[in-house]
Amino acid sequence: METLEIVNAELLLSTPLTVVVRARLDFVEADGHEAQRELALVIPRSRCDGDRPLWPALLSAASEHWHRCPGSARRLQVCIDGEWETLLTSQLTH
Q: Are the C-beta atoms of 29 and 76 separated by less than 8 Å?
């Protein structure tokens, strides 16, 4: 059986059914202005080990927010072990 890596992500909330992980999204709005938005990544507890999400679950939740970005997503970060870590990033074109 494959062992999945557990992530020590900063939680905003923990319920019997979900954990909510702190994240932030950097993006460019339609008018060209750069912006940053705080996010709450909701992960089913069935895809966690206690209060800690498994990597595939965290990446899945991050991808959902990435695709719903109100502009052009640039970078999505999650606070892991007290440090902001980049999970998703786009290639900048000139």
A: no
Question: Per-residue confidence of the chain (94 residues) as pLDDT tens digits?
Answer: 455 799 999 999 999 999 999 999 999 988 999 999 999 999 999 999 999 999 999 999 999 989 888 778 999 999 999 999 999 998 765 4
Which of 32, 30, 22 lies closest to 76 in space, CA to CA?
Answer: 22
What distance in Å separates the CA atoms of residue 76 and residue 90, rounded to the nearest whole number? 9
CA distance 34 to 20: 26
Please give the radius of gyration of the chain, using alpha carbons only, rounded to the nearest integer: 14
Q: Which DSSP symbol is given to 42?
A: E
pTM of the model: 0.85
Q: Which sequence spans correspond to the domains of the chain?
A: 11-89
d(Cα 73, Cα 58) in Å, to the nearest integer?
A: 17
Of 65, 68, 26, nearest to 43 (Cα)? 65
